[in-house]
Amino acid sequence: MSITSRRAVLRAGLALLGATPLFGQAQGAPIKLGLIESLSGPFANTGEAVFRNLAWAIERVNARGGVPTAQGRRPLQLQRFDNKGQVEESLSMLRAAVDGGIHFVLQGNSSAAAAALIDAINKHNEREPARRVVFLNYSAVDPILTNELCSFWHFRFDAHADMRMTALMELIKADEQLERMYLIGQDYSFGHAVLREAKRQLAQLRPDVAIAGEELHPIGRIKDFLPYATKIRNSGAQAVLTGNWGNDLTLLVKAARDVGFDGRFYTFYGNALGAPAAIGDAGIGKVVAVADWLPNVPTAESAAFYKSFRERFPKPQDDYVHLRMQLLIEALAQAIERAGGTDPLAVARALESADVTLAGQRGRMRAADHQFQQPLAVGVMDKAGTPGVPFDVEGSGYGFRVVRQLSADQAGMPHSCKMVRPG
């Protein structure tokens, strides 16, 4: 069997796990969820990582017998739709999911795609109320999605970019040696939002810090970041702030290391997908990452949660676990149970008051804008085995020591959503 064939069998097996409860208790028809994500192309690794997280969360729900409904206990089933990292393909995959009888779609690894899906779902649900769709977003963090573009049918389970920036600023405010900061990001809505908020918060909280350079680059198309890294080094910046993710982050930090840049990286996603291994020892004490949760959050419940994921996915390259994705599935299961079934309108109304806890982390949906409220953690890269770093990332030998934790109330921010609800 070829490598490609083996991968196909693994994916099919995981999908079937979503349909088959381990204890055989669920009796009803599967509740189908549609994952619309980049499963091929330059960001395929991010899509596959999301799939593993969601599949594992679904296994947990099905292992306890599925979701109780008025028709009996029903298992969850995850189906894959490859958008190839493109907005237009995302819309095509939405149509395919709807045609397949799916009422719950999940997407996150592109705010541009998320914005297009919100618009398309709004129009579809008004036009075809019998086939309504609820959109669960685990990673698209452009603040506009729960502000000006907020929708009754869209629920975001990740902290948006402004919330993450506020958490990073907790460390930037305390960095007394910082005089010059370089801003770099991907040239699309999320990248623009990160740089815009970075400039606003720097001006407010660290007006003494000069912006040494500001750069936007095409998303997913740059193979050689050496010219960008050279600009960063030559700018005299002591630190870089970036919202880059996937290969755009990994290649950037590799290039910075190669040209001898010795400053800090303040990142949204520097804690996974090859970045720690690419940075190596040069990142110790210098690479900062913010997340809803990090493996080294210092609690026994957190450690047990992370260990259980590593037991399920033991390969180092599969080490990409996000607690918010687990909470998303728990919140959906809770909402379906409260609604007594899968009617999208009833489930959406129940999701507005979702309140779930897993591994000691509690998250609650804010009904006013459908922005999930949860704690945030900020970590600094260090060698595994040093104090506060019992776990490394992707077998790299490097992990993130948690240096700041913000409660849900501290991480929350005002919104400008004017929610329009059906009826």
Write up this protein.
The protein has 13 helices and 17 strands. The protein is α/β, with parallel strands linked by helices. It has 2 domains: 3-159 and 302-373, Rossmann fold (3-Layer(aba) Sandwich); 162-291 and 375-411, Response regulator (Rossmann fold). The chain has a 7-stranded mixed sheet with strand order 9-8-10-11-12-16-17, with helices on both faces. Strands 4-1-5-6-7 form a 5-stranded parallel sheet, with helices on both faces. The chain starts with a helix and ends in a 12-residue tail after the last helix.
Short description:
InterPro entries: BCAA_transport, Leu-bd, Peripla_BP_I. This is Branched-chain amino acid ABC transporter substrate-binding protein. Helix 3 runs parallel beside helix 4 (111-127) and helix 7 crosses helix 8 (247-258).
